[in-house]
Write a structure and sequence with these properties.
disordered C terminus, 0% strand
């Protein structure tokens, strides 16, 4: 879910862009955004860390190997990360996303840190409730609600 929806209940076109970015990352990686119990990070966080470390190819689903070029895969990951920016204003419009996906010549801006979810802070007895703590708890709770449907 888009951070602005979790914080303020705002559902906008940019929230749809965020969801599309998550879907793109799920497709290219072959895994869900939610962490499995034995994993410590969500897909968006993992994709960002590997992209930032210039190891984005490790995000790609190995079963898709050979069906696309390395450059195309990295480009798709970058577009997914652009769509999942924490601030809605930093996310591209869907029409721009389509242009980015269909035109190799379209310049892609560098993504910034997406919103991270710290599953270790969920359920802790922390005394402060910073927006990031609230976001972490809300994101974790909402993913569990959706998962149970």
């Amino acid at each position: 879910m888009a951070p602005e929806y979790l914080y303020r209940g705002q559902l906008t076109e940019k929230a749809d862009v965020f969801s599309f970015g998550v879907l793109v990352l799920e497709i290219i990686s072959g895994r869900k955004n939610q962490s499995l119990p034995q994993e410590t990070e969500f897909l968006i966080e993992r994709a960002w860390k590997l992209y930032n470390a210039e190891r984005a190819s490790e995000v790609m689903d190995p079963t898709l190997e050979g069906s696309y070029s390395w450059e195309e895969g990295i480009r798709v990951i970058q577009i997914g990360l652009l769509c999942t920016q924490a601030a809605a204003a930093l996310r591209p419009s869907m029409s721009r996303v389509v242009t980015m996906l269909t035109s190799e010549k379209e310049h892609l801006p560098l993504p910034r840190n997406p919103p991270f979810i710290d599953v270790h802070s969920v359920g802790s007895t922390a005394t402060s409730s910073t927006p990031s703590d609230i976001h972490s708890a809300a994101a974790y709770s909402s993913s569990r609600i959706i998962e149970s449907r």
